[in-house]
Amino acid sequence: MNTRRIALAVCGLTVGHARKARARALVDDLSFEVAEGEMLAFVGESGSGKSLTAAAIFGLLPFGLRRLAGSVHLRDTELTALSERALRVRRGRDMGLVFQNPLTALNPSRSVQAQIAETYQVHKGGTRGAAWARARSLLAEVGLASAANGPETYPHQLSGGMRQRVMIAIALACDPILLIADEPTTALDVVVQAQILDLLTRLRQERGLAVLFITHDLALAAARADRVLVLYAGRAVEEGDAARFFRAPCHPYSRALRDAIPAIHGLGGRLTEIPGLPPGPGALPPGCRFAPRCPSAQDDCHQTEPTMRRTAPRCACLHPSLETP
Amino acid sequence: MTGELRVEHLSVEYVKRPRLGHKEERRHIAVNDVSFALPSGGTLGIVGESGCGKTTLGHAVLQMTPVSRGRILWDGTDLTELRGAALRPFRRQMQLVFQDPFEAMNPRMTVDRIVSEPLHLAFGMARSARRYKAAELLQQVGLDETVLSRYPRQLSGGQRQRVALARALATEPRLLVLDEPTSGLDASLQARTLNLLRDLQADKGFSTLFISHDLSAVSYVAHRTLVLFGGHMMEQGPTATLIRGPAHPYTAALLAAVPVPAQGRATTSAQNAIPRAGQFASTGCIYCPWCNQAQSRCHLDAPIATALGGEHLVACHYPLPGKP
Prior knowledge:
- The structure holds two protein chains of two kinds.
- By secondary structure, chain A is α/β, with parallel strands linked by helices.
- Helix content of chain A is about 30%, strand content about 20%.
- In chain A, the strands form two sheets. Chain A has a seven-stranded mixed beta sheet with strand order 6-7-8-3-9-10-11, with helices on both faces.
- In chain A, strand 7, helix 8 and strand 8 form a beta-alpha-beta unit.
- The radius of gyration of chain A is 21 Å and the shape is globular.
- By secondary structure, chain B is α/β, with parallel strands linked by helices.
- Chain B has ten helices and twelve strands.
- In chain B, strands 6-7-8-3-9-10-12-11 form an eight-stranded mixed beta sheet, with helices on both faces. Chain B has a four-stranded antiparallel beta sheet with strand order 2-1-4-5.
- Chain B is globular and about 65 Å long.
- At the A-B interface, helix 7, helix 8, helix 9 and helix 10 of A face helix 6, helix 7, helix 8 and helix 9 of B.
């Protein structure tokens, strides 16, 4: 895996309010890398900063928020140094984005073929005919044969899973380096979810596509991704190989997340809840951010903020569980 | 009043008006000949893909959609024969919790009004008593009185789901139909909601129809599970039996689609690629075009549900050998 090229490298990314310099950062000093053909899963509760990180990579932060520090490298290009105009060329061409709800992301009054062709033509130019041919071949690639060979198809004629396939086809139109999938299967049932993830896996293998997969479903992330990064209140708390991570999470928060999922083959036992809620903006506890909800917090946890361990298993905890699986 | 639900040969059919220039009306059979029994205090999980008829089945039980054939027996009374005022006392005993609680609440009503409205409608309770009762209901679902004066948009997803649950509990129902109650929640909120449901059920003794596509959530709450495909019952039985040894190839395929992290990442792939159920077979088993065990007989005559020992029913000519 080390021989593969790094597609995306994020270093020290910090996102916060543009005006209120003292308010807490919503994404705090986040660093990670995604190699070509690799899938990195971002896991965390709602509000942990997963989607905000994706927005910061794309330079699409909501009004009022700003990147305060850090760099984002896509292959060799430093994205944060680009002008808005130069960045717009990169978006859609070098990096694609798939949202949770494809129906709001697609234009209801234009055919899906036209929407894919438009993306291609805007970035790569060429004739309309060539763009349409490209659109049809992409639709075939994502497994929508009827739209690939048949008449023009509109979003309302498609099911949720098919719409998500169209979103992926649009994201792939210009052979991107990176695909960010933000909760792409949350609205879909298990069977369609498995199909969409099969598709993403195939695209990674065939095209060497790097995928940043944002989800709150830890089981899904552990089953399908190569590596997992757990976010809590804007900070990375654990990072590691997906299979190892699920067997032996070393951060108490990761363990709590894992134990909150009902295991399909382990009938019975009561689910472990995580007490309380993640800290809101401006209400960060001193010391470790997870300490107030942590079942194994000790005195020093409430005073010292832990840093990420440099050696594997990488986690940010003063008292990690380091048992070997 | 025990609160036992029996559904016998229930079918729900939607008739579309004939298209211009066409004579025949088009029919869509959403639920086809489904039978089950839900004892008082029990939980039945209904699982299947989107579009398999699980929500329609739930609505039909609550008499929210017209039933074409079959009977719905509630303590021996056939609900399908009742209309209007005669049905009202029964409606009070059955409540529904929707998948998206935000969509199901009036955005201009405070939580206080949302939760106390059924108290007014069902019991004609006075305003002061309603407020007191609403606070008590919220306390039961783990919310404090401060949310009473808030609007739905001011609540988090987990809080909204609890308010929806409190509203459903207001009329002291004997049956709760939960339509995908946790699919919009993240892992820790889902755990909290599922635990809450278990506790409330143990406390109040209502029965539950738990509709979901999430087999792991169903396995956690449901004593029995019914698997639907294209409106047909494929298999039903005790949840543990079904998950350990699925007898129907479709149940096995559904189980294979559930991500299982403990076994590494190679477990889920091609074998679970189930095509969308757009066009069903007109004769024979409805699942046979997608079934990898299908034989010539499956294409010709439709299997009837047969018992595989005990309460385990399967509608398949060649059921998989169950594990002991």
